[in-house]
Amino acid sequence: MMSLGELKPILATLVLPPAAPLLLVLLGLLLALRKKALGLLLAFAGLALLWLLSCHAVAVWLAQSILPQHTPVTAATLKSSGVQAIVVLGGGVHPVAPEYGEAQSSAAAAMRLRYGAWLARQTGLPVAFAGGMGWGAADAQVLSEGEVARRMAEQDYGLKLRWVDDRSRDTAENASLLRPLLQKDGVQRIALVTHAWHMPRSVLAFERAGFAVTAAPMGFMLPSRNGVLEWLPSSDGLDASRLVLKEWLALRIARP
Questions:
Q1: Do 145 and 92 meet the contact criterion of CB atoms below 8 Å apart?
Q2: Could you tell me which of 46, 58, 220, 252 has the fewest CB atoms within 10 Å of its CB?
Q3: Could you read off the pLDDT tens digit of each residue along the chain, which spans 256 residues?
């Protein structure tokens, strides 16, 4: 029997776009066999919802409207606030990268690691990385995010990660498993690096684990196209909307 954690990526896929609007369309078409008007209305609503959620403008609006906002941080702020370490959160792994001949961090994880390395150069602070094998990890994945990040940090940035959690499977475990590692060195005040849309839930998890957190967000969702293209559906827009809605839903569940 699957554990609750293993069910999380499956349930998330069903309640988020594109699956949720498509299921609404299917429900409408089935209902139209008996109640044509209501069924067609539901099908139309599902298609309209899928169109809107695939627009980058809608994703940006959602990110700025339904999630708590965190502003960019400066090196001066980190130095003056007593931060003791920079904590970078994982964001996925490409378990097979034939061009490199070894596993690589996903685009999201690589962006977070790059920003964490940049902050480390600006502040001189040590860096921790949190990431194991997520609940939805591919069968081909044999290395944890932490192991891949440790290698990439040294190869790409000449940065030696001071602490690495390579066992956590989600954001809550990122915080709980990293806590004892940093606690051994007396680290309580951290700068937390992750995408802006992921930051609200991450801050909540790390504060619950006992950290004093200064948010260091990156990867903000901002308008990136002209007025017409912002309102045309795209796979990027759909992916962005899905990420925001997933964080909003997870944040609502995480808060009492």
A1: yes
A2: 252
A3: 556 666 667 777 777 788 888 888 888 888 888 888 888 898 899 999 999 999 999 999 999 999 999 999 999 999 889 999 999 999 988 888 889 888 899 999 999 999 999 999 999 999 999 998 876 665 666 688 999 999 999 999 999 999 999 999 899 999 999 999 999 999 999 999 999 999 999 999 999 999 999 999 999 999 876 778 899 989 999 999 999 999 999 999 887 6
Specify burial of residue 221 (Cβ count, 10 A radius: 0-12, 13-18, 19+).
Answer: buried
The whole-angstrom distance between residue 144's C-alpha and the CA centroid of its chain comes to 17
Q: Which SS3 state, helix, strand or coil, does residue 186 take? A: coil
Cβ atoms < 10 Å from Cβ of 136: 15
Rg (C-alpha) for the chain, rounded Å, is: 20
Report the SS3 class of residue 196.
helix
Question: Which of 34, 110, 60, 84 has its CA nearest to residue 189?
Answer: 84
Q: Could you tell me the two tokens for 6?
A: 């293993």
Instruction: Specify the pTM.
Output: 0.87
Contact 162, 127 (CB under 8 A): yes
3-state helix, strand, coil in the chain (%, to 5): 55, 10, 35
Domains and CATH numbers, the chain: 4-67+229-254 (no CATH), 75-218 (3.40.50.620)
CA 98 to chain CA centroid, nearest Å: 25
Helix (H), strand (E) at residue 174: helix 171-183
